[in-house]
Amino acid sequence: MSRIAVGVIAALSLCAATPAFAQQSAASTTQLNARVVPYGDLNLDSRSGADTMLRRIDNASRYVCGDRTGPRPMQENGSVHACMHESMETAVNDLGHPNVSDRYYGNTPEVIVGDEDGDYAYPGKEQ
Q1: How, if at all, do strands 113-114 and 30-38 pair?
Q2: CB neighbours of residue 53 within 10 Å
Q3: Helix (H, G, I), strand (E, B) or coil at 97
Q4: pTM (predicted TM-score)
Q5: Bridge partners for 3 per DSSP
Q6: Distance, CA of 85 to CA of 58 (rounded, Å)
Q7: DSSP secondary structure of 42-59
Q8: How far is CA 75 from the centre of its chain?
Q9: What is the per-residue pLDDT across 94-123, written as a single tens digit (0 to 9) for each?
Q10: Which stretch of DSSP H or E encloses residue 61?
Q11: Which long-range contacts (CB under 8 A, 24 or more apart) does 24-31 make?
């Protein structure tokens, strides 16, 4: 069976209702934006592959959340950043790859070596 080559990132973005649509329900002003994030060409077990995947997810999050350059009102800025954070986290969790998740959450493995006497060597510890 071939490897699935795409993941999907989705984020809800609230569209501003104009006064002409003021009588419509709030549900009708919610729109689902999605962006396909390909990763079939990546080795997600490698650091560079996981980092590339995270950059692709970040770019897709910016797209679906409406991030743009230039000045914008603080409220819009906060909404965009909240949307990006939520969509990034959702995409990483939906992907479910341990290396990508570890890179996203900043987890790094730590090895502690001990001898029979109970003396332990920690990375960076002077002996």
Answers
A1: unpaired
A2: 25
A3: coil
A4: 0.63
A5: none
A6: 9
A7: --TTSHHHHHHHHHHHHH
A8: 21
A9: 999 999 999 999 987 777 777 777 666 665
A10: helix 47-65
A11: none
